[in-house]
Amino acid sequence: MRTALSRPTAAGAAALRPDRKAAILLAAEKLFAQHGYHAVSLRQIAADAGVPLALVSYYYGAKHELFHAIFEHWSPTIGQRLALLDIALSQSERPDLREIVRAFIEPVVALRASAEGEYYAMLVARELVYRTPDTERVLKEYFDPMANAFIDALQVALPHATRAQLAWGYQFAVGALLHHLADTRVERLSAGQSCASDPVAWPLLVDFIAGGLHAALPMPDRAARTAASPAQESRRPTR
C-alpha cells in the first residue's frame, strides 16, 4: 500500500518530478540486478537514486510493488517478442523453427546490449534463476502467458512432439538465454576477442537453441522412421 505524503510545500512540490520517479526505477533495476532482490533495501535504492526515502514509497509503495513496477515498465519487450512470433507463424503452415527462436531471444539480447536495458536484462537473468515468491508472481503474470504462446508455436513447428517434450525444450532454451544474459566470462575465455553483449553472439545463440530443439525433439521424418522400425524388424527373417 502506498504511503501518502502530506500536501507538498513549494520545496516538496519541486521534489516530485518525473525524472526522480524514473531515477528510482533505474536505481532499483541496477541494485536488484547486481545484488538480488532480498539483499537491497528501499533506503539503498533512495540513496542510489539521490532522492528522499519517502519519495520511493510515494511513487511505488512497498518494495515488492517497486519490483513489480520494473517488469510492468519493460512489459512492451514481451509484446515485441510476441509480435515477432506472430510474423514467424504467419509465414507458412509449418513455421521455421529458427524464426520462432529468433523471436524468442532477439528483443531480449538487444536489451542486454543497450545502455538503457542492460540492468533489466541482467535482473531477469538473476531473478529467474534464484527464485523467490516475488519472482514467482512476476513469472505467472508476465512470463507464463508468453511461454505458453511459444510452446504452442513449437507445437506447430514440431507436431510430432508431445506437450511435455516441448515444455522441456522451452525450459532448456530459457536456460541458454538466461546464461547468455548473465554471463561475463566469455571475455576472459575468448582472450578478449568477445564481450558479453557482442551482437555476433546473437545468431550463434539462435542456431544453438534451434539446433538443440531440432536434435532433441521428434521431427516428422524421424518419427516416420521410428514408426517403421518395428514393422521392419518383424519382417526380418529369423535365423
UniProtKB/TrEMBL annotation:
Residues 18-78 form the HTH tetR-type domain. Keywords: DNA-binding, Transcription, Transcription regulation. GO terms for molecular function: DNA-binding transcription factor activity; transcription cis-regulatory region binding. The keyword Transcription applies. InterPro entries: Homeodomain-like_sf, HTH-type_TetR-like_transc_reg, HTH_TetR, PsrA_TetR_C, Tet_transcr_reg_TetR-rel_C_sf. Residues 41-60 bind DNA. This is TetR family transcriptional regulator. It comes from Ottowia oryzae.
